[in-house]
Amino acid sequence: MPSRGMSAEDKRITVLAMLHESREPWLLKDVEKAASKRGVVIQAVKDVVQSLVDDDLVHVDKIGTMNWYWAFPGEATNKARAALEAAESTKAQMDAEIAALAKGVAEEKKKNPVTAEHEEMSAGLSQARELNQKLHVELETFSSSNPETVDAMRQGAKISKQAANVWTDNVFMMKSWAENKMGDKEQVAQFFKTEGINLNTFDYIE
After folding, report:
1. What sequence ranges are listed for the domain Leucine zipper with capping helix (predicted)?
2. Cα–Cα distance between 146 and 29 in angstroms, integer?
3. Which has fewest Cβ within 10 Å: 52, 125, 153, 178?
4. Where are the beta strands (DSSP E) in 30-145?
5. Is residue 96 part of a domain?
6. Confidence check: pLDDT of 202 > 90
7. Residue 46 sits in which domain range?
8. Are 47 and 70 in contact (CB under 8 A)?
9. Do 164 and 119 share a structural domain?
10. Tell me, what's the pLDDT at 149?
11. Which residue has the higher pLDDT, 73 or 45?
12. Do 63 and 122 have their domain in common?
């Protein structure tokens, strides 16, 4: 079985180590020759060197018509350390921001403890909505019924309408209570809107 070639990362490590060891500038053709002796395919050396330049691990300067490449041993370690410190600083900053946001949310909840009130209003609105749906079903049935059942259903519809208007009273009472409790009419209107009730059009059944 033929031996497996070097991986791309192994090639980078080999070339970079070679430049670190020499501590001198190299021409690309010399890098290719030396790297090929260490197992890097000569045709791949140019791309390997360019990848190291792109990652700022190898420096290149053009002197005259020729490019010279070099790298210092301590630079890679220093760059890694700087990157780690920057990452740690960013993490610390993000942790501080998250803590500040959490504190702000907690303080806001203390100033505006409306969770229980919202639940109470939601429960009342759910009951009103269920009754409203029941009324719509009855009215649809009423409109499609034969004459023999009209009188009986008219009485049932009247009772349902009265019950619906009682719940409409409850909705308006909850609206007034919430506005007095929260002191913010827009917030109350938004709450009812999210529950499917537009206070601008919500009214009694005639």
Report:
1. 148-205
2. 101
3. 153
4. 59-63, 66-70
5. no
6. no
7. 8-74
8. no
9. yes
10. 47
11. 45
12. no
Q: Are strands 59-63 and 26-27 parallel, antiparallel or unpaired?
A: unpaired
Pair 71, 20: CB distance under 8 Å: yes
In a domain? residue 21: yes
Structure tokens at 127: 């009951």
Is the Cα torsion angle 173, 176, 180, 186 positive or negative in sign? positive
Query: Which comes out higher in pLDDT, residue 31 or 118?
Result: 31
Q: Coil, strand or helix: which one is 26? A: strand
For 127-186, write each residue's pLDDT tens digit.
666 766 666 666 565 555 445 444 444 555 555 556 666 666 677 777 677 777 666 777
Strand order in the sheet with 59-63: 26-27, 66-70, 59-63
Q: What percent of the chain has pLDDT over 90?
A: 21
Enter the tokens of residue 201.
């059009």
Cα separation, 35 vs 134, in Å, equals 84
What one-character DSSP code corresponds to residue 1? -
CA distance 92 to 88: 6
